[in-house]
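Quick one: co-fold with iron/sulfur cluster.
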Amino acid sequence: MDGTAPLTTAPSLIDRFGRPITYLRLSVTDRCDLRCVYCMAARPNFLPRSGLLTLEELTAIGERFIARGVRKIRITGGEPLVRRDVTTLIGNLGRHVGASLDELTLTTNATRLALHAERLVSAGVKRVNVSLDTRDPARFGRLTRGGDLSRTLAGIEAGRRAGLQIKINTVALKGENENEIPDLVAWAHGQGFDMTLIEVMPVGDVGEDRADQFLPLTTVREVLESRWSLTDIPDRTGGPARYVRIAETGGRLGFITPLTGNFCAGCNRVRLTCTGQLYTCLGHDGALDLRSAYRDGGIAAIDARLDEAMAIKPERHDFDVSRGAGPAVNRHMAQTGG
Ligand code: SAM
Ligand code: SF4
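Sure, here it is.
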């Protein structure tokens, strides 16, 4: 289709608590070239490729979300850049940026960003989130179970050179990057990158007790405050992060606190897995199958499922990481689309 042609519009997505759903996280694969210890098991059972939504289906469903009022799409996974046709998808959806879509972006581990950065920029991507939990090569290798830090750093550099705005996402991990976080913040801000810290969430069994990984961001904030002056700022980037400005670094730091500060009241998002399962909440089971809806009934059937989704989206998640508590849901983050 002609990217400048408006999509046929339809009633906006508003859930039963009156929250407008304007943000879609679209997973294109559950596969990844890393095995982060909080995200996946060491030997994950990846889905058969035949189960994935095709490029045509991802485009059609993505465009239907846009027609129903979604203004921001984040492509994710697994690692989105390991899917071969992902840049075509980004090109297809990118045609709506500046018209019916405010932003098309992605979350990546950056190992392949150097290969794709220029194409992403031409497709209309302006910002990417890069996940980086440490700048220590040995710790990086341990946390990703074998990853090579230099590839991620080279990807970040290539992204910057191509003109992408970069935000660093860091999961706070007890006894791992705990003491490194201030240095990571100083580095990111020194590079001109925003940064967001994330509490580890109990999603999927990763073979470790979450209580051993969990580091509350209230503790991290105290440590940062003993070193720098943090001022709360009202900035929002369409997600659950709450931001501070650090006077000494001049940079912005976000906190995503699903455990210590529930952020569900302002939830504006839904997640579509790479097999077309629509999850209305990261912390709840129960999905609507958009793939079979689309295959059986086309766009009209997608619309019916989306209306159903608005009627069942839960008010909030109920994460708990106390010792011995099982995962809140059995899906890993890489399956739902983190
Ligand atoms: N592979 C890409 C990446 O790492 O950026 C995109 C997918 S990854 C699942 C998306 C984000 O989810 C990453 O920032 C990762 O750190 C985060 N994540 C994965 N498992 C998590 C968990 N259990 N708790 C909190 N964040 C998690
Ligand atoms: Fe892969 Fe991202 Fe999960 Fe790490 S967090 S294993 S990079 S999907």
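If it helps, The pocket of iron/sulfur cluster (ligand 2) is lined by residues 32, 34-36, 39-40, 77-79, 109, 131, 334 (CB under 6 Å).
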